[in-house]
Amino acid sequence: MQSMIPDYLDQVLHDVASNTSGELADYIPELAVAEPERSGAVFATVDGRVYGAGDIDTEFTIQSISKPFAYALALDDSGFDTVLAKVGVEPSGEAFNEISLERGTGRPRNPMINAGAITTHALVGAGLLPPDERVDRVVRGLSAFAGRPLTVDAAVCASEMDNAHRNLAIAHMLRSYGILDEDPRAVVDGYVKQCSVLVTARDLAMMAATLANRGINPLTGDRVVADSVVRQVLSVMATCGMYDAAGDWATQVGIPAKSGVAGGLIGALPGQIGIATFSPRLDSHGNSVRGVALFERFSSDMGLHVMEVPAAARAVVSSNHVREAGTGALRVIQLQGGIRFAGAERIVREVVDDTPVESRVVLDLTRVSSIDDVARRMLLEIARRLTLDGSEVYLVDPEAMVPDPDPGDGGRITVVDDLEQVASRPHGTLGTLGSDGRPPTET
Amino acid sequence: MQSMIPDYLDQVLHDVASNTSGELADYIPELAVAEPERSGAVFATVDGRVYGAGDIDTEFTIQSISKPFAYALALDDSGFDTVLAKVGVEPSGEAFNEISLERGTGRPRNPMINAGAITTHALVGAGLLPPDERVDRVVRGLSAFAGRPLTVDAAVCASEMDNAHRNLAIAHMLRSYGILDEDPRAVVDGYVKQCSVLVTARDLAMMAATLANRGINPLTGDRVVADSVVRQVLSVMATCGMYDAAGDWATQVGIPAKSGVAGGLIGALPGQIGIATFSPRLDSHGNSVRGVALFERFSSDMGLHVMEVPAAARAVVSSNHVREAGTGALRVIQLQGGIRFAGAERIVREVVDDTPVESRVVLDLTRVSSIDDVARRMLLEIARRLTLDGSEVYLVDPEAMVPDPDPGDGGRITVVDDLEQVASRPHGTLGTLGSDGRPPTET
Amino acid sequence: MQSMIPDYLDQVLHDVASNTSGELADYIPELAVAEPERSGAVFATVDGRVYGAGDIDTEFTIQSISKPFAYALALDDSGFDTVLAKVGVEPSGEAFNEISLERGTGRPRNPMINAGAITTHALVGAGLLPPDERVDRVVRGLSAFAGRPLTVDAAVCASEMDNAHRNLAIAHMLRSYGILDEDPRAVVDGYVKQCSVLVTARDLAMMAATLANRGINPLTGDRVVADSVVRQVLSVMATCGMYDAAGDWATQVGIPAKSGVAGGLIGALPGQIGIATFSPRLDSHGNSVRGVALFERFSSDMGLHVMEVPAAARAVVSSNHVREAGTGALRVIQLQGGIRFAGAERIVREVVDDTPVESRVVLDLTRVSSIDDVARRMLLEIARRLTLDGSEVYLVDPEAMVPDPDPGDGGRITVVDDLEQVASRPHGTLGTLGSDGRPPTET
Amino acid sequence: MQSMIPDYLDQVLHDVASNTSGELADYIPELAVAEPERSGAVFATVDGRVYGAGDIDTEFTIQSISKPFAYALALDDSGFDTVLAKVGVEPSGEAFNEISLERGTGRPRNPMINAGAITTHALVGAGLLPPDERVDRVVRGLSAFAGRPLTVDAAVCASEMDNAHRNLAIAHMLRSYGILDEDPRAVVDGYVKQCSVLVTARDLAMMAATLANRGINPLTGDRVVADSVVRQVLSVMATCGMYDAAGDWATQVGIPAKSGVAGGLIGALPGQIGIATFSPRLDSHGNSVRGVALFERFSSDMGLHVMEVPAAARAVVSSNHVREAGTGALRVIQLQGGIRFAGAERIVREVVDDTPVESRVVLDLTRVSSIDDVARRMLLEIARRLTLDGSEVYLVDPEAMVPDPDPGDGGRITVVDDLEQVASRPHGTLGTLGSDGRPPTET
Q: What is the pTM for the complete model shown?
């Protein structure tokens, strides 16, 4: 069988090909010579599968798409406090080349406008690196996101530096406010190099997939930045990534995104996929015309909007029944699907509304597909409270969805691989938990 | 067993009680006499369970929290095009009482600032209702969100109307731009009534839960507004709901939210819960001090941030094995958990990477907890392609997760309730699909 | 002989007649029906002579030209402190219909924008009058500036009131800031009546001439407002009168001015003339196209720019000679022309550089055409110092240019009508000054 | 006798000495070490006399006071069109260090803010000079205004250049808009040198006096810039010279002025005097605290406000009588004082209202102290019209106030030095005008 995803991408790419509106970026000669008809679209899954159509291996410069990744590196290297003291997170409602500094402090409004991005560049390497080494760190960091070594396009870089007056203006302004405390020219030089890193649509999709995958590159398996950094970066992309069209994008597309003037556009859907498109003609906001059209299609066709409420899910409690009678009676609560707070709440309710009178209670996780921290803590709390109420509590957890099953103060829990293990053992033989929190006798 | 959720709410409410900073809204006398120490917090699940702590049944006026709900009603009544032509969706980065009209057109930047909210009020009822009937429609609409009949506080309303100069200023300005085309005083009068609707924290949580539940009130089961309206409203709350602290909120809390000057604050987490807090003292942004603190705790303690990437989920394909040998060989692909695009892609890949050579292929949905539109369409496309490749395709779907199983052009699929039904029948006896898309012989 | 001034006005009016660019104000129907080809120009001298050409007796509504005059009335009625606390004097660089309130206080930037003008209207009559009586006071005040009774055009007024949403917006905003403290509708109603006062170009020229004449109407001789008020009004007209074209006007025309949307335009050149033009087509700033062209011609042709430095004046000391010899020797210093500070300094220098050794010193003012306060005080100080040096000082002042000739502490001065009176009297017979400061024996 | 002007200056300086509020400029170390108690005040008359009190020969850097003078040089070198295309003339209502560029074009709002001043610097020398030579041209130009060779303070200049980030920001921004078309660093370097020119209060007063004297240095007699340039510079100083306090200054002081952060402050009163003060402590607008206080005193004590209407002047026509009877009858119109348009109009009216029937008409200018272009042209037109009416016209003009007495088309005029020359000659003997426009027989 052939996968229908490449077919879909081909189809959508074909649908937008008739749109020849927009203009090439022309503020530097190197961008103005791009081939305007080039178009490509790539999906990269959080486990590294790549689907593409069109020009997915054509190299172009990353430009502003480097901003969220450099922001991630800065947060990872310098810490949240340092970065937030220098760069805000508020939408500016302005075009990318507006200065938008906070009155009084001179703090750039967010890291997606140039002022914020220049400041962010200077915060990579925790402010400790000489400019050249910092550029190396940035290029290596972007490479880690992409999963292959990236390089700087020297010609574009030189061309941009010749036309960097607006960025130099911004950097000197930042220096005058003390937001930058080093030579503004060196920072702009480094920032221009950052923007001149060559990428393909395939690379960009993988970079986006790394964000979608909580900071771990799906290809290499390397953790590039911490979870909390990714959450921050995605939040800022969601509110500030599309400049003065932020609200339109948030309502119509609803995927945290970032565009670059060379025609790239990325989106990252947490836990699902990274998407990248490439088409050089830009609209008046500076976003790729076809790229925007493609994302609108993707969001609409595939329900990728972050505010899209999934259809009512099947109950997380798939069954709640009593097995065996008498003193050995066993209350079995079978769970299923992905469990987050709302799912855990349903389990709590199940137990509270119909508190088991049986002496043994089994929570069966065999069919559970995912469980997050709060749900895990709530399950353990259920176990603890049931213990205090006098029950023996068992967790059927063959794949260790709850890796550290310690219900804490007064609670006890026995982890088994199979419901039959509980059924077959007599009441009252609950073993001691081993140092790894799992009863060694049960494994 | 006692649920730990009320305990949790009590604990968090206790933790923030020491914070007595902030001031009561004092721009109208009726608000300035609120009891400053009142505090409450409520969770309402998408199936209607309510957990609360503190003052959850104290009545106060809804104020600006009415904005997203009136926006929902306006979208539902007047349609997206009409509403978007009059009110934008871009964050304004300004306080709630700034005018923030687009230069030239006079269109308010978004429906969460007063200018946008006043315009929105006028769009409820599709612009066809006399002012009094429009107010009725708004109050009934808010009541539908809350699941009980709400009323207007006449004293607060009168007090606000006496001090409505800023809103009158805005309304006259909107009238001068043609954004409003009726008597500005009547619109402001209606808008003030809308803001003076009395609610409790319990009501607000249920209203938020209605948004979290795709527009269907969890208590009454009534659809209040369409799905697409909810998505729009949540998107706008996410980017514009907290005024000039939108970016801080989006990064630190990450729950679409809205606050009111009487001390209310709501958040809606799509598919999970509605949250409401009540505490009258406000910070300099006009948001409830304790409310903001509570939401920060909720988001952090419970992983409720919309950009929080869930931990890597268990594979959607739980097993892929061949059953029975020879010509009757059966390829069984067992699925589990919630399936959206990314999950469906994994199934596609499973089939593509290892195309079944068996003549019969079974997709077993028994353990699937949810499936969205795109995943459903992709499953059917798999079935269609397998049919074209010469396979007979079976769907084990006892709970009709795929309600209309027509794979389209050239595809055929047989739906059964149990895998054994397939195993037991000989190859080549595939029945005809009934008019309901399900083979009548199988049920 | 025929005066060449009407010829000049005819010629210039003819020169601009070919310019048919611009548009009639159309925001209210009554203005849109004006006859676009009407044009007129009037000069009114500070002693009441009127020269005109074209449509100088056509009535139209005064509109914004009422602003400086109402500001004058407010300053006169409420005092500088009260008015300045409510309305600033800074240029706004914005169009007339921008709101331009100071952040925080809500104080309008200046009295020439609508927000300032509405506030100003409310300050006429010292805030003590009921709205109707205040309108009467304004109309009577404008009439006093014009020198004839003016009336309100009820049709225009009604038409404007129907379209007064922007002004109502502004007034409610001012009320919300406490800049206005009464019913905003009543103030706007009064302000609209103020703008609907009917005037002719002749009236406007006389109103401007009243400003040029230090607040005294040249026709009636009535003092309408105080000198200091006129200075303030002219200063504000100079910096804020032409909205966002203030700098262009200040450099190219250099006459304090004010325009109205009905096509009027006035300029007041302190001490010289009032000018008014009328032509209804407006440019994009809302100023009369031909009016602006006419003023550019007037300024350029007649050297009326306030920063135009007059050609080097003839020496204020026309002669300095000794008459008669011996003990009766008389030092005669003859002065001429207009004397302000710079002229008085020259006289001081004359006396200091060549201190008279003669026992009698005569300051002869016979040929002096004007003298201001500081020059008068300096002349008296010269006299005082000469007295202390031992001289007898005489002032030849037949027209009482120095009305109260008391040199103060230790100084003495004898005022005579004719130099011969001094020459003929012997040294040492200086008479005593009478109670009116003039020696009775000399008259 | 001692002049009272130094006494006055001493007194006023003493009066403000108790005011120790304000702060030294501290953005560069060199300014922060100024002696804060230094104070001085200087008056320089348009004929070069200097009065001073306090520290009038202390050197400090000119800073922003260089702006109007460099603007004058740029206008003179590059022409109005070129300069106005690059720098506007509208007040910005902003502090000196705001960027204030016009949206879209990037044109600085006016030459008094830094963006405008940097652009202006680049326009000195008509854009043809290498940076170093341009600095020489600027320093020589400032020296010409001061009447002595000025020099650059190398230490301050180096210190400023180290802290020039805001100016570099502005210059790069201007370069990005194409307002500057050369290396921004070189322009800022030159501009910083311009600001670092050392001056004394005495120098500044003389520079201001050069503006007050129509561009001719009172000391050297050299014309530094054209008349029309001075008018432009004074107009811009009047509206933009005091940054965001422009309106306060225009109403309260009313003298075109400019301040510098080193503590200097100048004012130029056209045709009268140049004023300079020096005191280093600055208010929040960046203006010298005592300097502002001194100017308020000067304006108020001496009636120097440009909108101050001089007291009603004595009639320009001092007498109008008939001398001798019969055919030799002579109509003598004696004029006096300074004559501008308004005065000339009075003369016209005198002749029109009472058209001479005598065959000979004499206009006697003996007592006229000044006469401007328009008045001169009007006098000649009177003569022409009287000639056409059949009169012989005589001008008594011993000091050649009307240097080129040609009444034009059909007019004839005889210039004499003394009225008796006319009285003594018989009617009808009017001589022919010589090539210099004056009858050779009369001299």
A: 0.88
